[in-house]
Write a structure and sequence with these properties.
By secondary structure, this protein is α/β, with parallel strands linked by helices. Helix content is about 35%, strand content about 15%. The protein has 13 helices and 13 strands. Bound molecules: 1,4-dihydronicotinamide adenine dinucleotide.
């Protein structure tokens, strides 16, 4: 039976409105935008909707899902790839569908990881300011040649694999760790190894595995100690992979030589909003931001024109596909399986 999805979309930004409205499938749904996150304070806004469209920092724990279910919400349509903020077991028990956008532009995130590596290394962000200020002194801008360096890629799914392909063009030695190795990357010259060898050998370590119970604080005091002195650590995956306090200590002792973050453990309090005229209360974040060799971006790895278009298309297809009983617009069953984490 076909019905028009009635959708409450949370954490909406102006660019989300634009990219969703631009897609032809937008005409087939009723979409209400809320520019605030979904949490216990805002859940009352969901009355009367059958679908909730959420993003990376919306709260979808047991309490929220139970209330959503009671108010008639049948489908959680995530407009992102990661779903660590959704209590999947609870959604399953409640019989709610959960969908996502599995791979909207892995290259976009991989290219951002590479941008962090290149900027931290060659310090173009500092050079830009110096030159604009008439300061052509090179002291403090010394980098290293990426060619022949060993880069460790933790997690070689869509994004990790895209990064391996980019790095192979730089002539890096690439070490990978993933419980499910990708033979195509081996053909490019990447070597799979165990996590401890990757951590202790690499000059640069980039994290691309999902956040779950096993990977929470994968980077902690002990794993940091096992790394090379002066190592570069890049995280464009999820903040909870890194113990931020341990990382601050490692920066203070020079164990960590460079840190590039696009995600942060407590980012839900900060990211995607302008706090420039407020006093930021998060002392851990503020301490991180003081180091000259730390570069932080506010979860923008996904933020390309192409990725926004793909997010809108797949999310709209998921909403309409669910309300159509998984007939059109899905081309095949495999697409349905990877997009829908739970089909009740
Ligand atoms: P994916 O599901 O294609 O790949 C994840 C890979 O990690 C899989 O191959 C899996 O076997 C592996 N893995 C799982 N547990 C592991 C562990 N403990 N150690 C090593 N490998 C492990 O996911 P995809 O699309 O590559 O995304 C990776 C992560 O990137 C997502 O979970 C998401 O959190 C993050 N992401 C960040 C974005 C941003 O804007 N910064 C945008 C999109 C995703």
């Amino acid at each position: 039976m076909q019905s028009t999805p009635n959708v409450a979309m949370f954490s909406t930004q102006a660019y989300d409105k634009t990219s969703f409205a631009a897609h032809p499938l937008h005409a087939n749904i009723k979409l209400s935008h809320f520019d605030i996150p979904l949490n216990a304070k805002t859940i009352s806004l969901c009355q009367g909707f059958d679908t909730v469209c959420a993003f990376v920092n919306d709260q979808l724990d047991e309490a929220i899902l139970t209330q959503l279910h009671a108010s008639g919400v049948k489908h959680i349509a995530m407009r992102c790839a990661g779903y660590n903020n959704v209590d999947i077991d609870c959604a399953k028990q409640l019989g709610m569908a959960v969908s996502r956008v599995p791979a909207y532009s892995p290259e976009a995130v991989a290219e951002h990881a590479l941008a962090l590596i290149m900027t931290l290394n060659r310090k173009t962000h500092k050079a830009y300011n110096r030159v604009r200020d008439g300061n052509f002194d090179l002291n403090g801008l010394l980098g290293f040649t990426l060619h022949d360096k060993t880069v460790g890629v933790v997690g070689t799914g869509h994004i990790g694999a895209a990064l391996v392909r980019l790095l192979s063009g730089f002539g890096c030695r690439i070490l990978c760790y993933d419980p499910y190795p990708n033979d195509g990357l081996k053909a490019l010259g990447a070597e799979y190894t165990d996590l401890s060898t990757l951590l202790s050998t690499s000059h640069i370590i980039s994290l691309h595995c999902p956040l779950n119970e096993d990977s929470h604080h994968l980077i902690n005091q002990q794993t940091l100690e096992s790394m090379r002195d002066g190592v570069m650590l890049i995280n464009t995956s999820r903040g909870g992979l890194i113990d931020s306090r341990a990382v601050i200590n490692a920066l203070k002792t020079h164990k960590l030589g460079y840190l590039g973050l696009d995600v942060y453990e407590m980012e839900s309090e900060l990211f995607f909003r302008d706090h420039s005229s407020e006093i930021i209360q998060d002392d851990v974040f503020e301490r991180l931001a003081t180091f000259h060799n730390v570069l932080i971006t506010g979860h923008q790895g996904f933020f390309t024109v192409e990725a926004l278009g793909q997010i809108a298309e797949v999310t709209l297809e998921n909403m309409i596909g669910f309300s159509n009983g998984f007939k059109q617009p899905f081309a095949n069953e495999a697409a349905t399986e990877t997009r829908f984490l739970i089909i009740p």
